[in-house]
Amino acid sequence: MQNYARLGTFGILALIALRLGIGWHFYMEGASKIRGGDFSSVGFVNGAKGPLADQFQSLVWDHDGSLRLDQAKINGLFTDAANNAAKHFGFSEEQQKQLSRMVMRYAGQDSKKQYVGKLNEVFAESEEDIFKYWQNVERLQEMDQANAWNDVASLRGQKEKIETDRMSSVKSALASIDAIWKQYEGQINSIATPEQFKKSGFYRFSRPGEGPLSTSTVDRIIPYFDLTIGGLLIVGLFTPLAGWAAALFLLSVVLSQMPGFPGTQPTYFQAVEALACVALATCGAGRFAGLDFILWARRQNQRAAVTS
After folding, report:
1. In this predicted model, what pLDDT tens digit does every residue of 255-273 receive, in sequence order?
2. Which of 85, 240, 249, 277 has the most CB atoms less than 10 A away?
3. pTM for this one?
4. CB-based contacts of 69: which residues, under 8 Å, 6+ apart?
């Protein structure tokens, strides 16, 4: 009786081509992210829509900008970071004076209780946009208390537009604050002597409330994840594992823009590629012109030895 479950030559060639094509796609995505060195998933995660949007956006530290755009709080964080760094490194009196001068160049208040430094220049330059941002925060809070804004599709669309406009107006200010944050961290560490640095290690200007799984962690993982998955698929090694990992990753992209939910972006390409990855994972695609053939042949020989 003919075995209709067997793959023909063209079926095998199609699987090989599919594995190489998807592998090359993942490999090049990873390589370009590593070469660029500036990959960020913040925009993608912040743009999540659908019932899982809150879960995705929780990966972004201060995703709505409410902490960074609170002038008093953010200045307090900068001041506290300097004090914590002084304890971390055990700064001398002279180093603490140098640290104080550096802090005043970035944040804090002068003797007249006026905000000074690069950080507060951002607040001065974006004063109108930040004022509108806080107005929209109050407006959105009122909308959340009225069920109609969440239950009626047309009203929900209006609410989402207000949320989008609120964030787009302060996008430049938030980017400037992030850049100053990073620069400030570097300036703090530059005050330490080589001996202090060796003993205490790099001081990280921690972000309050940031969990272990955040976009900053994800951004370090994804480029190497893409590169590794792509490499494994190209050479056909551990194809079931690589295929399922790729499929789950692509599924997360699809779920971030829940199909059928108002305002979502199309994710058909990712959905189709995820299904193709499932096919690679379940059809033994790595056995054909891939290194999985060696593992498969070894298992077959072991089984033959046992049965004989």
Report:
1. 999 888 877 889 999 999 9
2. 277
3. 0.78
4. 130, 133, 134, 170, 173, 174, 177
